[in-house]
Design brief:
The protein is α/β, with parallel strands linked by helices and about 300 residues long. It folds into 2 domains: about 1-90 and about 265-305; about 100-235, 3-Layer(aba) Sandwich (Glutaredoxin), CATH 3.40.30. It is about 35% helix and about 25% strand. It has 8 helices and 13 strands. The chain has helices spanning about 10-25, 65-80, 135-155, 170-180, 195, 225-235, 265-285, 290-295, and strands at about 1-5, 30-40, 45-60, 80-85, 85-90, 100-105, 115, 125-130, 160-165, 185-190, 205-210, 215-220, 300-305. The strands form 3 sheets. It has a 7-stranded mixed β-sheet with strand order 7-6-10-9-8-11-12. Helix 1 (about 10-25) runs antiparallel to helix 2.
Length: about 300
């Protein structure tokens, strides 16, 4: 078994190019592949270490799950027994996809884990939020205001759910009580993988489910200026249009503009320079006067990153 960071420089480069070819051959579009190398000298501890890492990340729509599985299988085969390469090629649910039951959340009013399984014929608004998030407070208040105005009309037809990503359930309960927001169904994410499944990378984030159990909208609540009308339209069997109501546009290949004077980096030369610096930093570990000088420094590091 080999660690990526212990492979020789040329072997690292060859492996990255091989993985890149797999992504290209499978028509994956633009993919973020990052490789970094750090040389770290700690003057206080008189230690030196090297950290090398590779990360490959690409999100696909749920409809391209088959492609994701194929690409991941090819990458795993190419890696063999090499460890230390982080690969995340995944398909994620979005607007237009069927809602997938959210599991392992906690009802803030009860103990134990529950699941949020959609009931056909109901329209749902799921608001991912947090007590510590200032921009989340107005949308949550708006949810409360909509229920105060339309609660009776929407009974058994529209359901508004607040799904907190806080670290503690008790803080959510206290916040909801202090704000008088008890009319919104309150759930705590806890150990649920729902944020990963639905690629919720920040809050506030709203997801609207139509009567058939499909995701009608997914995104920032500010992109839907009239949520009340949206919920009414869906309850009446109408479809939503506009930003966030359909699959994200397919990434287009493009020859992006290159800055004037740009020249390709000579990686071999950079690695030679890193090797030279490595010798210098390793020498620092034997410098007792440097260690003594570092005692009065809050932080005494030299870090070189490529």
């Amino acid at each position: 078994m080999s660690e990526f960071k212990t492979l020789e420089t040329q072997a690292q480069t060859d492996l990255i190019e091989k993985l890149g070819a797999i992504l290209k051959d499978n028509d994956c579009g633009d993919v973020a592949i990052s490789q970094s190398k750090e040389l770290v000298f700690n003057a206080s501890a008189q230690t030196y270490e090297e950290n090398v890492s590779v990360s490959i990340k690409k999100d696909f729509p749920a409809a391209e799950l088959e492609k994701c599985v194929k690409v991941m299988a090819e990458i795993i085969t190419a890696l063999g027994d090499v460890k230390g390469v982080n690969v995340e090629i995944v398909s994620k649910l979005g607007a237009g996809d069927p809602y997938e039951t959210i599991t392992k959340v906690e009802d803030c009013s009860k103990e134990g884990e529950v699941e949020l399984a959609h009931i056909k014929g109901q329209v749902w608004l799921i608001d991912f939020w947090a007590t510590w998030c200032p921009p989340c407070q107005a949308p949550m208040q708006h949810n409360v205001d909509m229920l105060a105005k339309r609660g009776e009309d929407w009974k058994d037809k529209v359901r508004i759910i607040g799904l907190s990503i806080d670290s503690e359930k008790e803080s959510v309960n206290t916040h909801m009580k202090n704000k008088k927001w008890e009319s919104v169904e309150s759930f705590f994410r806890g150990k649920s993988e729902c944020s990963k499944v639905y690629s919720v990378n920040g809050v506030p984030h709203v997801m609207i489910i139509d009567k058939e159990g499909k995701i009608a909208f997914k995104g920032h609540p500010a992109n839907r200026p009239n949520l009340e009308q949206d919920l009414d339209d869906l309850a009446a069997g109408k479809a939503l249009t506009g930003e966030g109501t359909g699959p994200a546009p397919k990434e287009e290949e493009s020859d992006s503009a290159v800055p004037e004077g740009f020249s390709e980096m000579d990686k071999a030369q950079v690695y030679r320079e890193l090797d030279d610096n490595k010798k210098v930093l390793e020498g620092f570990t034997k410098d007792e006067s440097l260690k003594e000088s570092a005692k009065d420094c809050p932080r005494a590091f030299c870090v070189i990153v490529f």
